[in-house]
Amino acid sequence: LQCFAIMALNFAASIGKKAKEDLPITNVQVEGLVVAQIVKHCKELEPNFVTGQLLGLDIGSTLEITYAFPFPTKLEDGEAEEDDGSSFQLEMMRCLREVNVDNNTVGWYQSTFVGSYQTLEIVETFMSYQESIKRCVCVVYDPQGAAQGAFGLKVLKLKEKFLQLFKEGKCNATTLNQEGVTSKDIFVELPITVNNSSLVSAMFQVLETDQRADRRQTDRLAFVETDLLERNLEFMMDSVDEYHGKIYQVSQYHRMSARHELQHQQWLQKRRQENAARRAAGDDPLTEEDPNYAPLTEPSRMESFLIANQTTNFSEKVAVAGGQTLQKLGVMESLY
Question: E strand or H helix at 22, and its extent?
């Protein structure tokens, strides 16, 4: 009976594990402490790029993030080496396990500057995490966006279809067109829910007071900072220039590929004529395989897709900022 019970438990565990892997993540629940830790770390070292580890629980379709800790900042004199960073992570995980804090890695967080997070580095980091953690996410925090009243946090993960193509190295134009993958099929933004404990909620209720509107609250009618709008426009123009550079590389590839193929066809036609003459003379024909011929490698569309997404992101920010300014102008006009 004990043997049958063990077999039944193993079977149930395997079924549960398979069902868990097949069930996609539809929601991410973040503790308020984690939000405070991320915001504090990013703002203290702003405008430097920072990153850290996310810990939590993977429960069904909901990914719970219950704790976070920062990675060591790499100094200019090279004091913080990669080995030191790995040992720091292991030591932190051991200490958290000793105090009964969730020490299961569920992803990482990183800061961004004006929403410029869709880069090749984040895709490669996802691939590195996917080797050991199938259901991992990345939390991106934008301090500049948060200063303008936005939430500032985004939870990202790679789409499965693009993940498989990138893993197999099939990010060329031919494969992507056949699979119907566009620049919008790289990342998926998951809904995020901030959860607070009962004690924290009670504390917020005590601290909350009824205040009348005063002059300080009129800052909400202030126009969007011109510096932020200018930066978004500059980044958008830089992205457009980079995209044109990628288009030029693709056009160069097609021209060189056509020239390369023409030279190969000319060599093949000449070799066939030689073989026809040799057959007429009773000699053995020569091989028709050109030893110097090798098809050119098609450039990856990965970076162009990411640049297109970045350009769209910057243009949307400019549109939102312009719309908010027009709304505030309308409100001010009605007041005065």
Answer: helix 2-22
